[in-house]
Design goal:
Helices cover 29% and strands 27% of the residues. The chain is of the alpha/beta class and 374 residues long. The strands form 5 sheets. Strands 3, 5, 6, 10, 11, 19 and 20 form a 7-stranded mixed β-sheet that branches. Strands 14-13-12-17-18 form a 5-stranded parallel β-sheet. Strand 19, helix 11 and strand 20 form a beta-alpha-beta unit. The chain is globular, with a radius of gyration of 22 Å. It starts with a strand and ends with a strand. The structure holds beta-D-glucopyranose and zinc ion. The site of beta-D-glucopyranose (BGC) has 9 residues, from helix 3. Beta-D-glucopyranose binds next to helix 3.
Length: 374
Amino acid sequence: MKAVAIRQPGRELCLLDIDLPEIKPDEVLVKTIATGVCSTDRELLTYLDLVPPPGASFLVIGHEAVGRVAQVGAAVSQVATGDLVVPTVRRGCRRCPFCKAGRSDLCRTGRYTERGILGLHGFMSEFFVEKETNVVKIPPELGELAVLLEPLSVGLKAIIESLKVQEARLGRAAAAAGHAMFSSALIVGGGSLGLLSSLVLLQHSTQATVVDLDETNGVKASVARALGARYIRLDDYRRGIEVDCGRLRRDGGAMDCDLLIDTSGDPATYSQLSELVAPNGIIVLLGLPDGHKHRRVGIHHFITSLVMQNKVILGSVNASREHFERGIPYLAPPRRKFEDTVGALITHTLPFARYREAFDIGPRDRVKVVLDWR
Ligand code: BGC
Ligand code: ZN
């Protein structure tokens, strides 16, 4: 079968003929329908460490996929031939409490592998094999749109985590003041991750504003607006790298948001935009700085470690009566949270044999580029 891979030496993007793997009793054989191209794939072609599976001189890439089950192993019970499925990406270390509890996204040891990214072949191939426990059954009506599920899951996780943090610290007071948890959000970067995160927020009635460098008549802007988000072209508010937040705030109306999600990875931009985050707001970083792997010191290194290791940073000042009261026992121990518009996110679909063109589509022309494997 054909597969899109990056071959060593020289990080050559190529179409290979590889063997169709046989399935074990707990595995399923999936006929690939579509795979998405992600910035991580582009980074693997340039500067990320390329880690093929042990003994291999190439890595089949692709971690965003949807397919149809073609064959099931003898012990498979949750999925059947013909089912539409989306595979997850990360395989845990099997040792740490988080991986053991099914939260390999929070792996403590760093000894995880990721399909199509790190140590395991990915899904850009005519078929793939996976354990039934690593595939998610998809309602048939979703069809190939399900290729967006993986990047959506990344944005959704970030939103859920930030909600948990905010509920834990502001819940009671926010409820008393009659505030919805995220009434407005600023999303930095109008790529698929930014737009899918906006999609999630908009469905929870959060006002979403997407900022990006691209023109207001560009593809990102039109998808953002179709989803119901406001789009602002950051370049209209910048002189060099300096962002005029005052003007942005005046033109954008009451822009102060209680959630900022960065998908750009550009610290100079979002650190300035953080001025538009309301008091007690939360800032979530999802983007990695450009070329991050080669900068082992300074802000790039700091941000990469925050993002790649799910770390939390929180600003804090002063303490109130509640904290005084809660502190007492420590001193005196008593006893001890659209179909057309969603489809618009997929700006290009190309047959897999045109994989090179797919990788050549520039950032201003694309949101999600998809390879068709049927
Ligand atoms: C993928 C994640 C993965 C991350 C880091 C992203 O592009 O969507 O699943 O964990 O890259 O490798
Ligand atoms: Zn990705």
